[in-house]
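Board notes (copied after class):
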Amino acid sequence: MRTSSMPRPLRPHESKIPPPDQREFQKMECILFGSIMEKNLIHLENRLAGICDPGCTPFHEHEMSFSLKTSSTPDVTLRLRRKFNFDSATSDKWRFRYIGRPEPDQDCPAVVRKVIHSVSQSKNMMEFVKAMGLRMDFEYVVKGKMWTCGAVKIVMSSVQKTKQPGRYDADNLEKLSASYLVEISVTIEDTDDHLKASKQLKLFSTQLSPIIEMEKVDYMAK
């Protein structure tokens, strides 16, 4: 007599659902830095309007930087950013950005680093960060505009530091510099050729010369 049998349940290691691929989250960022005085902003904006996609996106945000150190230099930097209007419905929505050490490639014309982006919503974000064993290095308020040109992102911003952590009223904010920070970046897959992407990024940056000169900055150097 034949007996029917139920299929044997799959064990965890036999699951047909593949685990998330880390490469779906981890990317490589190629980035160049520059600075420009406020009186020259109009010239840069006009140049960007001519070579970038139509329109730009204004932003006004608060960012905190944390680091996880296993040696004299941080292995991972965690940036938390939210809209500066803390009274809005989105004040507890945070963008997480994990930034690795720059790749030690002297021949590459841009800074190249691993990045992971994610989003979280919490009213007690500092408690969560402390539980991870992270300590805040600095915080600031940033206001500016962002342009895109295909995959290339151009961010121009004015940075204000806080005189006293946790206080964000006008009297407690101080301009970090009289100039504006400019960043040009492109994000690629972890397996893509970062040298090729960096050379293309550097070539793109030459379109902004002589208004601004974009450079590879060794910000880890002491």
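Comment from the instructor: The chain is about 15% helix and 45% strand. Confidence is low (pLDDT under 50) at residues 1-23.
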